[in-house]
Amino acid sequence: MFWRLFIYRVKVLLRNRVTLFWTFAFPIVLGLLFNLAFSSLDEAGQLETTSVGIISKNNEKTEAFEKVLHSIKKDGKSIYQSKRMNQNQAAAQLAEDKIAGYYQIDDEDVSMSVSQSGVPQTIMKEFLNQYVQRTAEVETLLTSGAIQPQDLSADMFVEEDFVEEVHVSENYSIKSFYFFTLVGMSIMYGFMWGLKNANDQQANQSSNGIRLSLIPKSKLTVSSANMLATLLVFYVLNMIILAVYRFVYQVDFGDRWSYICLVYFLGCLATISLGTLIGNAFSKLTYQQKLSIGLSVSMAMSFFAGMMGSQTVKYWIDQHLPLLGRVNIVNVISDSMYQLFYYESLKPFYQNLIWLSGFAIVFILVNVFFERKVQYDSL
């Protein structure tokens, strides 16, 4: 009976065209738009050296910043040529187009000024965004004690080690950075499948739920078969999406494919379970109302993960409210992909795996609690 339910559920899921569109076709189309929008940014290596100015108000921070800036190279040649100057000199050279822009480094922040919009200026901005994020992650790791200071300095910010181990010089890809967040959002859409499961299992929500409640099998057997079928379908769909991103859109995800597949599996399990939880917890609402709740949560998580041009918000959260970033499934998935691509050490990645596993376990246990206690009156 279990496998009959499983096969039946797979057939039902594959006939749901609306959910298939939003969880399969939509991420592929959105990925195409990302590819068209961000591919040109990865042509930095084909650009001639970009001259930038630096206004320093903190010598120690400036030296660290310049070391990272100069480590981005193509064929052994640094993409950026920097020169320290004062405010008046920077403004004058920027007005005369002698520099693409300038960075201002003080005790609290690193800011950037440009006079026009172009590929060099866009690359400067993206470099600054990632530098700020990396710095925030370093501070978080130091605070948590996950990595010792000497390990971080050797692993990330010292001359060739930064370029070789973090893969910034040869594999540095702005497009990949944005696609990592897109991966998180597309996996987050798995809540739709879980929500559909909950809706089809509840007798007060659908005719299918009425029929399932009458069969001589426990609710746990039915929900387990539905969950396994949904996980299989959604995971396979995401593997196809990943293949499209990698081989059609030429997105570089690195070479740690076993870990990437594990992130996908745990992410799919967690988001499907979350969708089922939304369906079980808000059983008195209509399906469309529960779907709206799930979409709102997904959009909020995507925004705080930097999906919609909100990288500054994401970096601020990582630095000041790290727990908020940890409970954001989209952020945890995108950070996991980011860490697998850039980091040699897997310690931060393992922490994210623990969080994803924890989400899945908690959601499943709460769903079991809801499904065991639900009862329907016989009329």
What does this protein structure show overall?
Helix content is 70%, strand content 7%. With 379 residues, the chain is an alpha/beta fold. It folds into 2 domains: 2-39 and 174-373, no CATH class; 47-166, 3-Layer(aba) Sandwich (D-Maltodextrin-Binding Protein, domain 2). Strands 4-1-5-6 form a 4-stranded mixed sheet, with helices on both faces. A hairpin with a 4-residue loop joins strand 5 (101-105) and strand 6. It is found in: Membrane. It comes from Enterococcus florum. GO terms for molecular function: ABC-type transporter activity. Keywords: Membrane, Transmembrane, Transmembrane helix.
Output the radius of gyration. Answer: 24 Å
Strand order of the largest sheet: 4-1-5-6
Number of helices: 18
Content-based structural category: alpha/beta
Unreliable runs: 157-171
Q: What is the average of the pLDDT values?
A: 83
Helix amount: 55-70%
How many strands?
6
Overall shape: elongated
Pfam families: ABC2_membrane_3 (PF12698)
Protein name: ABC-2 type transporter transmembrane domain-containing protein
Keywords: Membrane, Transmembrane, Transmembrane helix
Transmembrane segments: 20-38, 177-195, 225-245, 257-279, 291-309, 349-370
